[in-house]
């Protein structure tokens, strides 16, 4: 009498089960090509936009989101094996290279910029998988690991390589190129990475409620309005409002909303500095204005993500304690 496969404990059947599972896990890129294709297109558009409108230190842009987007999509896609991840990395590199060429960079510099970006993207993916295997920013420990260790350190090798190359070939200031690259790419990984890692069904379901959605829209609209007033050069003393608004964002909108708010601040502050507006117009050159705006976001507002992560961790502890109390009461 023949047995079904689930009941067959023969060596052939047992050996075949992991192979079948592995074959599913090692599914190639073209079994699910939509996300890689959209990511490649978005990366190319971000590269072109940054290079056309955000260059400050020679050929280095002060705003850079392409690497952050590529890294977080790669992470959220999961570990699918070499058959998926190698072509995915190649498509990301193609998007960066296409953007560099469309922005007018020469071929040799486009290849160097592409290699440097892929180096830091790979370091972020590797470091996040090692230090945050659950890919969650719902505790202070996980926020420190991702924002400080991964996002802060991963861009340094690429920044050193490209700053040295630009200083040698084009005579650009090594320090300005290095600092601009490091701060811009670290901000991209921190803001877009935090958004992507905290964007989950549970958080989206919470903000799907009409009252919560209106609250989120209202808070983020207020952050945007205050930023536009502060950094556009309008002489209205509202700068003191921004930090309390971010605290409200951290309390009410958690890591997801706080990362969006920090992204809004980075875009308006650094963008305004490149246009010659904002608090750093007097006494600083163009690249220095953008660098000061980067430092303002990194040291002035990015730490609110730690507060949001800590509050999220506290809320999780409170929920678990309440559940434990209910179970104890039911058991007694």
What does this structure look like?
This protein has 332 residues and is mainly α. The chain has one domain. It is 76% helix and 2% strand. It contains 13 helices and two strands. Strands 1-2 form a two-stranded antiparallel sheet. Strand 1 (55-57) and strand 2 form a beta hairpin. Helix 2 (34-53) packs antiparallel against helix 3 (66-76), helix 2 (34-53) packs parallel to helix 4 (82-102) and helix 6 runs antiparallel to helix 8. The longest helix has 33 residues, at 242-274. The chain is globular. The N and C termini lie far apart (52 Å). The model is unreliable at 1-25 (pLDDT under 50).
How would the blueprint of this fold be written?
Elements: H1 11-25, H2 34-53, E1 55-57, E2 60-61, H3 66-76, H4 82-102, H5 107-131, H6 140-153, H7 155-170, H8 174-198, H9 201-207, H10 210-231, H11 242-274, H12 286-301, H13 304-331
Antiparallel strand pairs: 1-2
Helix pairs in contact: 2-3, 2-4, 3-5, 3-8, 4-5, 5-6, 5-7, 6-8, 6-13, 7-8, 8-11, 8-12, 10-11, 11-12, 11-13
What composes the largest sheet? 2 strands, antiparallel
Strand content: under 5%
Helix count from the secondary structure assignment: 13
**What distance separates the N and C termini?**
52 Å
Strand elements, count: 2
Could you say how many structural domains there are in total?
Answer: 1
Outline: globular
Task: Return the string of H and E elements.
Answer: HHEEHHHHHHHHHHH
Strand neighbour order, sheet with most strands:
1-2
State the helicity in percent bands. over 70%
**What's the Cα radius of gyration?**
23 Å
Overall average residue pLDDT: 86
State the low-pLDDT regions, or none.
1-25
| Structural classification | mainly alpha
